[in-house]
């Protein structure tokens, strides 16, 4: 997936401004979709989509900050760019502290918007890549037997087979068998690759 293939959702209750922003983004070959309220945007929203959100802060009903909180509760970790015509420093600080990617005050410079958007899309792509890596490693870990997982834990601690055998009360030969199966299931050709995979899960 490339940055330009990801969808950008624009949430703003000002129809004229929203349409103008959608036209601007489409003219730069972005994939866009507009919504006139936070509530409308949330309908049918799932964790599976990889996207970026540009949202007004001050809207009737659910405002932008509440929308950000709702997305976070749903486990949707998209980069969010907030915009407002009535912004102030405390609101900007609150939005950024709550996890917003950026904060732009209307009317904003087109170049500043596009730069912020490209940065947000790069973040979304990186998060997606890490999520896929996490899911691959988690699936492999789920294939391990309890004994293989015990061997894995000791292997990544740098323990030699003899030490592992003593710790688990089994023979060195049995350790070698479990270790071989564990490495196969984890698709690791070395202890270094094994550790790197596990670190990616913990990040």
Automatic annotation (TrEMBL):
Q: Which GO terms describe its molecular function?
A: DNA binding
Q: Which residues form the Response regulatory domain?
A: 7-121
Which SMART domains did the record assign? HTH_LUXR, REC
Name the UniProt record assigns to this protein: Response regulator
Q: What is the lineage of its organism?
A: Bacteria, Pseudomonadati, Pseudomonadota, Betaproteobacteria, Neisseriales
Record-annotated HTH luxR-type domain positions: 137-202
Keyword line: DNA-binding, Phosphoprotein, Transcription, Transcription regulation, Two-component regulatory system
Q: Name one GO biological process term.
A: regulation of DNA-templated transcription
């Amino acid at each position: 997936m490339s940055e330009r293939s990801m969808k950008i959702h624009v949430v703003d209750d000002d129809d004229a401004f929203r349409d103008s922003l959608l036209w601007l983004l489409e003219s730069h070959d972005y994939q866009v979709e507009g919504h006139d309220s936070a509530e409308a945007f949330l309908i049918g929203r799932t964790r599976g989509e990889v996207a970026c959100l540009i949202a007004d802060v001050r809207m009737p009903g659910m405002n932008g900050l509440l929308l950000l909180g709702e997305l976070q509760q749903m486990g949707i970790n998209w980069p969010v760019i907030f915009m407002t015509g009535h912004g102030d420093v405390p609101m900007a600080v609150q939005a950024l502290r709550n996890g917003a990617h950026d904060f732009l005050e209307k009317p904003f410079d087109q170049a500043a918007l596009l730069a912020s958007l490209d940065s947000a899309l790069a973040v979304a792509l990186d998060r997606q890549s890490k999520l896929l890596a996490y899911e691959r490693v988690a699936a492999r870990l789920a294939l391990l037997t309890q004994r293989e997982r015990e061997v894995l834990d000791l292997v990544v601690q740098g323990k030699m087979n003899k030490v592992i055998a003593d710790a688990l009360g089994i023979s060195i030969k049995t350790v070698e068998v479990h270790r071989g199966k564990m490495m196969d299931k984890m698709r690791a050709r070395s202890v270094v690759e094994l550790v790197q995979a596990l670190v990616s899960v913990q990040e």
